[in-house]
Amino acid sequence: MQTAYPTPIDIDLDHPEHAVDTDALTSLIQQVVKAEGGDLRYIGVILTGHDTVRSLNRQYLDHDYNTDVLAFSLAGPAASDDEDTESEPTPIVEGEVYVDLDTAAERHDEFDATFEEEVRRYVVHGTLHLLGYDDGTESGNREMRRLENVYLGDD
C-alpha cells in the first residue's frame, strides 16, 4: 500500500542562522527526478546543522563526524509499469534528505561556490541517492559528480 503524503516535496528550514530559497530547491528536485525518470512519491528535505546531521550519521551509519548530506530511502524496490523484464525499473523516490547548512557555509568558498550553490549541490546529491545512485565506488562517485554538474549547469 502506498503512503499518502500531503505534498510530494516538503522542505523544512530548521536552522536559526541560514536562509535558503526553498522554492528554487523544490524546482530543482522536480527537474532532477523528472530527468532521471523517477516516480516522485515524497522527498522531505531537512535543512539543518552540524548537530542534527552528525547525530544521524552516528546513529544510522556509525560515522562520528560531520558530513554535508545524508539521504534515507523509505521506498521499497524499484517498480516497473511494463511487465517486460528487460525494461529498466522506474526508481521510486520516497525518502528524506538531511542537508548540513553549517557545512555548506564553511566549505562553499573551497569549491568556488556561493552558499546557495553549495546547498543546491547537496540537495541534488541527496536526490540522486534516492534515485538509486551510489557514490561508494570511484566510478559511482564520478557519475554522481557528473550528474550534479549537469543539473546545476556546471557541465
Describe the structure.
The chain is α/β, with parallel strands linked by helices and 155 residues long. The chain has a single domain, classed as Metalloproteases ("zincins"), catalytic domain (Collagenase (Catalytic Domain)). Helices cover 41% and strands 19% of the residues. It is built from 5 helices and 4 strands; from the N terminus they run E-H-E-H-E-E-H-H-H. The protein has helices at 22-35, 50-61, 101-107, 115-130, 138-151; strands at 9-13, 39-48, 69-73, 92-100. It has a 4-stranded mixed beta sheet, with helices on both faces. Helix 1 runs parallel beside helix 4 (115-130), helix 3 (101-107) crosses helix 4 (115-130) and helix 4 crosses helix 5. The chain is globular and about 45 Å long. The termini are far apart.
Q: Can you describe this structure in just a few lines?
A:
The protein is 41% helix and 19% strand.
Give the topology.
Elements: E1 9-13, H1 22-35, E2 39-48, H2 50-61, E3 69-73, E4 92-100, H3 101-107, H4 115-130, H5 138-151
Parallel strand pairs: 1-2, 2-4
Antiparallel strand pairs: 3-4
Number of strands: 4
Low-confidence runs = none
Mean pLDDT: 92
Beta-strand content bin: 15-25%
Helix-strand string: EHEHEEHHH
| Order of strands across the main sheet | 1-2-4-3
CATH C-level label: Alpha Beta
Q: Quaternary status of these chains?
A: single chain
Number of helices: 5
Total domain units:
1
- Biggest sheet, in brief? 4 strands, mixed
Radius of gyration: 16 Å
Q: Please state the overall shape, judged from the principal axes of the Cα atoms.
A: globular
How much helical structure, as a percent, in the residues? Answer: 40-55%
Instruction: Report the CATH superfamily.
Output: Metalloproteases ("zincins"), catalytic domain
